[in-house]
Amino acid sequence: MRRHYDRIHAVCRRIAGGSRDADDACQEALIKIVRNLPRFDGRSSFGTWAYRIATNASLDELRKRERRPKLDRDDNTIDRADDRAAQRVDHVGDRLVLDAALAELPDDLRAAVVLRDVANLDYSEIAQVLEVPVGTVKSRISRGRAALATRLRLDLDLPISPEIGNQSDPGERPTDLT
Amino acid sequence: MNDDLTLLASAYLDGDVTADERARVETDPELAAEVERLRSVRVLLADVEPSSIAVRESLLSNALDAWDRLPIGERTGAARDATPAKRGIDPATAAAAATITAPISLADRRRATVNRRLLGAAAAIVVVLAGGLVLQSAFSGNDDSSASLSAEPDATTSAEALAESSQDARAATAAGGEVAPADAANDSGGLDTGINTPAPPTETDLEQLNTPEELGIFASDAVGAPKAPDVPAATSGTIADQLSESQAAILAVEWPLCLGADYVVGPARYGTVEVVVGVDESRTLALAYVADTCLEVARARLP
Question: Could you read off the pLDDT of A16-59 as tens digits, one per residue?
Fold first, then answer.
């Protein structure tokens, strides 16, 4: 379990997004893995089996987040505001920017891309985890990567675009008191 | 860049292209640029900041608590005992799993581990045949009867050859002519679908441990033993007596080293869970863990 922890956490982090949600998803995944361990039959590798659980736990966490009452959504809004603050000063590699780009991907694309690029599963293993054909996996990974590249403006080789940088009206910006 | 070209660039990045496709990507600047664009995404995604040690330990601790709360019977994998027909899985896999949960001896357990992990039923047959051939060739060069094996100088050579050729106690057992009927059933390709399920283990098959203190004493006794304690019981009175420590170590490599264990001292039963007992390099800490999963069941200081 300890051996697989880092990757399980990374999958949760990339699919569920914010660190708090990722930790919740990771905790849920680890407990499910432990509880279902006696039923693990070895038909797939332990890693593939564990990442499937982690992926499902992360997607469940996302759905829970969608159902949270408005008060919690306000909390998320605060997170997004933090994202923007970071985007103003950081380059495209900023983890918060990446989180935001990932958050805008549809769940099915995000899961496929994360399982390939974070968990390093091959197409057939991802097909097992997501229970879709290999061709669908390839397509989702391709579209997911392309969408992320576009969101991150990697094609322009530029830092974060002004439109997702400081978006507040000039009147709302802090006044320079010096 | 249309979707087809992006798909091609993505597949190239994953190494999932034909030679023609590869050549096309590598000669087309636009496609090559798309590959680099997608590669940048992959690099960014893979760079996940690790969770803090405190969070990691907390999450793992909670998960292990969940394990502790599992009824003890569920931990041993009762679900794996279902017949293959019920579960629709490969019989060889099921046979290997069944052998793990209902072994008849230490040697069988060891065989089951090898079968499940490395060989499957067909490969097991090959190993047995190979061992038999080696044995036959060893005997063919010696006019003495096989009964003199344990007393003659050549016996050591035979035992070494067997250990080296198969790294399996099965061969050594065969050399001693001590294959039990139940063993023979298992040896028929490993395709045990439950019809020839061996008898339940007797209480004497595994050392029964119930407390960390007993675990510590077990490990301590094993570490202090003159010979590796996990030499298969069936061979301990014959060829195994003549195995060097290094050969015994070869036989022991089937058990996984987990949780910081540097040496395996042998299998045991802790509560109702079959475990592997290992010790650390300094031989101060005994660890009992499940072989398949490396899950810790208990630990103790050696007395």
Answer: 887 788 889 999 999 999 888 888 888 888 888 899 999 999 98
| B8 touches A126 (CB < 8 A) | no
pLDDT of residue B114: 52
Candidate CATH numbers 3.30.70.20, 3.40.50.720, 1.10.10.10, 3.40.50.2300; the one for domain A2-68+89-156: 1.10.10.10
DSSP B206: S
> What are the chain B neighbours of A19 within 8 Å (beta carbons)?
51
Cβ–Cβ pairs < 8 A, chains A and B:
138
**What phi and psi, each to the nearest 5 degrees, are found at residue A101?**
-65, -40
Rounded CA separation A100/B87 (Å): 43
Contact (CB<8Å) A26/B294: no
Cα separation of B65 and B58, whole Å?
10
Q: How many helices (H) and strands (E) does chain A have?
A: 8, 0
Query: How much is the ipTM here?
Result: 0.72
Q: Euclidean distance between the first and final Cα of chain A, in Å?
A: 55
B7 and A26 within 8 Å at the Cβ level: the answer is: no
Q: Which helix (H) or strand (E) holds A145?
A: helix A134-151
Q: Which residues does B180 contact at the CB level (< 8 Å), separation at least 6?
A: B104, B105, B234
- Tell me, what amino acid is at B245? E
Answering whether pTM is above 0.80, one says: no
Q: Which residue of A has its CA nearest to B95?
A: A41
Reading the block at residue A70, the tokens are 């408005």
Nearest to B89 among A35, A41, A46 (CB): A41
Q: Where are the domains of chain A?
A: 2-68+89-156
- A114-134 mean pLDDT: 91
Whether B286 and B215 have beta carbons less than 8 Å apart is answered as yes
Q: Does B93 sit within 8 Å of A43, measured CB to CB?
A: yes
Q: Do A117 and B97 touch (CB under 8 A)?
A: no
Q: Are the C-beta atoms of B238 and B176 separated by less than 8 Å?
A: yes
pLDDT of A141 reads 95
**Partners of B299 in the β-ladder:** B287
Average of per-residue pLDDT across B30-52: 88
Q: pLDDT band at residue B10, thresholds of 50, 70 and 90?
A: very high
